[in-house]
Amino acid sequence: MWLFGRPGPSGFSPYSTAEQVTDGIDASGLTAIVTGGSSGIGRETARVLALRGAHVVMGVRNMAAGKQVKEAIINEIPTAKVDALELDLSSMTSVRKFASDFNSTGQSLNLLINNAGIMMTPFMLSKDNIELQFATNHLGHFLLTHLLLDNMKKTARKSKKEGRIVNVSSEAHRLTYPEGIRFDKINDEKQYSKYQAYGQSKLANILHANELTRQLKEEGVEITANSLHPGVISTNLFRHVFTPPSFAEGFVKKLSNLLMKNVEQGAATTCYVALHPQVKGVSGEYFKDSNLAKTTELAKDMDLAKRLWDFSVSLTK
């Protein structure tokens, strides 16, 4: 229970909010992309990055919702620089268009926050015929990162400022299939578990950041890649957990105020990893409650990370 958390070595705790962990940080001159910026912790992440002076580009599936969030942020923070571009991470065509549209503007890119996700859905296939949770939570972000990486490298060299890639993962990475990633059974409906498939996609987020770190260090590029657990937050992510609705759902909702973080606290670790000076030069790590945390052995497996990388490349060609 995060309720009893104390501040860690960073000075922050599960109680800390996104505003608190970025207090006094000047992000002006930085450009950040936040996927899933129109709701939940993505929205709060976008708002706080804009509050600190960053130019925020939200990748959103629903452009009407994105426009409303943009207007709300600007109403609250008149100096905010916020844009919304359409992005459906379950569609490689949409991911390619988003990256192309962004890169064609000539804007630099300092921060990439791979935040959007779906959780514990019934078995479905993406528009590219890949299991939906793996396609949305991992593969879409893998392709997006690949398509934006040259821009980030150029920005880091030109600006002499460290670029940061942040993958929002989950403690659910501990609840994946026994082998970690089911390379040969990604689309196996008969053996599908919505819980383990979610865990698999979150494990993939960590492995992606770790292999990306290895490659960036090898190239000598000043870009870091980290992953994190935002906390258990009462958002619309939980809409597929209890199907059909049950007594358990009502019970969880009643307990949520005690057991779960609010959105302001849920966005804290993302904003900490994206902006805080304490994280400068730190890469290939996993964070929780704005502090370094431990993962499973599978999440540290660099051979598994490399195999996932090659598998993801083959699926996104």
TrEMBL record:
Pfam families: adh_short
InterPro entries per record: NAD(P)-bd_dom_sf (IPR036291), SDR_fam (IPR002347), TIC32 (IPR055280)
Organism: Tagetes erecta
Family the entry assigns: Belongs to the short-chain dehydrogenases/reductases (SDR) family.
CDD domains listed in its UniProt record: retinol-DH_like_SDR_c_like
Protein name: Short-chain dehydrogenase TIC 32, chloroplastic
Domain of life assignment: Eukaryota
